[in-house]
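Title: Request for sanity check on Response regulator transcription factor prediction

Description:
We are preparing a figure and want to confirm that the structure record we downloaded matches what your pipeline produces today. Could someone re-run it with the sequence below and paste the raw structure tokens into this thread? We only need the token string, no images.
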Amino acid sequence: MRAVIAEDSVLLRVGLVKVLEMAGFEVVAEVDDAEALLTAVEEHRPGIVVSDVRMPPGFTDEGVRAALVVRAQWPDTAVLLLSQYVEERYAADLLTGDTRGVGYLLKQRVADVEEFVDVLRRVAAGGTALDPQVVSQLLLRRHSDPLDRLTPREREVLELMAGGRSNAGIAERLVVSESAVAKHINNILAKLDLPKAEGDHRRVLAVLRFLGVGS
């Protein structure tokens, strides 16, 4: 799969190129600002974009705004944003629309190459991945809503769901059976008042409610 990298730090950009190539991605462009990122995506139509949140010239939210343009104009291109710090609103902005092929990680996660590559492949395949610190901070902001009905274990399962884990991945992480995970998820959906409805993906709706995105 072809990839475009947008990162103004030369050292990190070189490292990302090596990690992606090692993971089997073809890096077709590496740029250092948002405008060049959009140009590269238009030219190469990559399968995934890995971009810094803050880039020249303003070092504010240029990467996020570019990512939103990519999602709108080239919806088949997955986007993985990297941030130096936890910035919840950027994660929320990215998740407001289609949540397929979206990721948001702290840059420190790149050091764990195996885990980072797992996230890359998950997002590139259409999954969603959020940094655990982002998920934890969003959870701490929650008060007096259906999420308070969840048990500690159900919250843990929902947090892993928000991180993009499958039932098998959750079972492996928590060292329980997949059937136990399925029961927890059914309980979560019930407690969050998410009845079965045609056209709705209840698992996605549960994650969005957990993150405070959408209605």
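Thanks, this matches our download. The beta strands are 2-6, 26-31, 48-52, 78-83, 102-106, 128-130.
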